[in-house]
Amino acid sequence: MTRTTNPDKHKFLGYAYSSCAELRTQIHIGAKIQYIDAKTSEHWLNETNEISAMIKGLDKAIN
């Protein structure tokens, strides 16, 4: 990670977490309008949930 201070790291990880949440929103919208098929959207939502958990875990590990 290129951020040098813990507050910067927390801020950066917060941005990453929020971006992942925005991606989940866009996946939901894409599935609702049938632009993304159900199987793909389910897979992507599971992936983004895992990524969010990893980001939160990393954020908690940085004290």
Describe the structure.
The structure is a single chain. By secondary structure, the chain is mainly alpha-helical. Helices cover 81% and strands 0% of the residues. It has helices spanning 6-32, 38-61. The mean pLDDT is 94.
Category by helix and strand content: mainly alpha
Q: What summary fits the major beta sheet?
A: none
Alpha-carbon distance between the termini?
Answer: 15 Å
Shape: elongated
What percent strand?
under 5%
- Summed up, the helix count is 2
Number of strands: 0
List SSEs in N-to-C order: HH
The radius of gyration over CA amounts to: 14 Å
Helix content: over 70%
Nutshell version of this structure?
With 63 residues, the chain is mainly alpha-helical.
Please give the structural blueprint:
Blueprint (H helix, E strand, L loop, with lengths): L5 H27 L5 H24 L2
Features:
single chain, 63 residues, mainly alpha, elongated
